[in-house]
Request: fold
Amino acid sequence: MTKSELILRLSEQNPHLYQRDIEKIVTTIFDEISEALARGDRVELRGFGAFSVKKRDARVGRNPRTGASVHVTQKFIPFFKTGKQLRERLNTE
Amino acid sequence: MTQETVTRAQLSEAVYQEVGLSRNESSDLVETVLNEISDALARGEMVKISSFGSFSVRQKGQRIGRNPKTGEEVPIMPRRVLVFRASHVLKSRINQTLAELDPPHIEVA
Reply:
């Protein structure tokens, strides 16, 4: 399912809403999550899961092709932990 | 700087501010969005949200695990796990802001 398919499904379930507004709703939700992560905040959606950011320290890496060592700067990575309810659902249906 | 936790309440509030719906309807829609995504994943479908990331379901085989406390061997049953892959857009957005802030509370992984 893609974002546009999600929007279509939601439009079918909510015929009283403009598709334009549904699009805005979906975009707003993911923008809010992204913004929170960009501030270093955590997003906790009980039953669904939690998004957080983790840090990878700077390290000396290697170019696997040439073997040359390269400096890899510190970076931040988004992380998702599946919620209990969803995890259980994946294994019962 | 301290870490805040964003929940459904803030997502609903953002939807309420952005779209001309009631607070109740805004929170219902946030719930519906999460439900639709969960339903698709439970069906085994991959969910791709452009410029955010993708969720996919991966089948794990049975393996022998160990109780870390007792050292006892326990079989881990075959199961389905959810994997989230952040898009490049999200990764670079996060790195742009956090590179400067470098908040001390963020755990090193």
In short: Residues 19-38 of chain A form the longest helix (20 residues). The beta strands of chain A are 42-45, 49-56, 59-62, 69-72, 75-82. The mean pLDDT of chain A is 94. Residues 36 and 91 of chain A are 30 Å apart (CA to CA).
